Task: structure prediction
Amino acid sequence: MVGKRRYGDGCAIAHALELVGERWALLVVRELILGPKRFTDLRAGLPGISADVLTQRLRELREAGIVQRRKLSPPAGSWIYELTDWGAELEPIVTNLARWSSRSPTLPHDVPLSADSAALSLKALFAPAAGEALDLTVGLRLDEHHFLLRINRDRLHLTRVDSSPAQADLVIETSPQILAALLGRARTLDDVLTTGDLMLTGPRATTEHFLCLFPPPEPVTGISALQG
Result:
């Protein structure tokens, strides 16, 4: 972490910001929560970052013990980056931060959204009804990226996979932006099916129930009064 800014504050929050508070650092972590990625995959998920800055952030996160680099076995043989066990403990922090931020009235909705970010929003918003007996497997394709969701009672397990699952209760194919619009209730299921912005394999009623498991949080109030 040579050359990084220090707060000179003994608070653990200050130290946390020294570890992941640099620009892009926490977004690099976000892109690795659902599994390892190559350098080129990370750049694709973070189109605004330069190769030099990504290299620097990865180096800093490795030095901090949050990210590790590993070479895949042949025939792949490529280098990948992944979270360490300690780094993976950031997942609930990242998803809770996303849920907190989603209440902001100034959250931008007209800028690019990575597939991993859109998929993780499902974890951030997941709120099944108390006592609801759920047992659901959902394949999610966001552009060319595939994810598998397994929901059992009040638990959601989300992973990145290589292709759509052979057996699933639902398979949803859309884009990160359309998924975000559905979750934010800016678009309806009828709308995206009619326009072809979403392809569905599975019962329509199950899909509607699935989307209801992710209610958008109530927007924060009183912002205008505070700003005035």
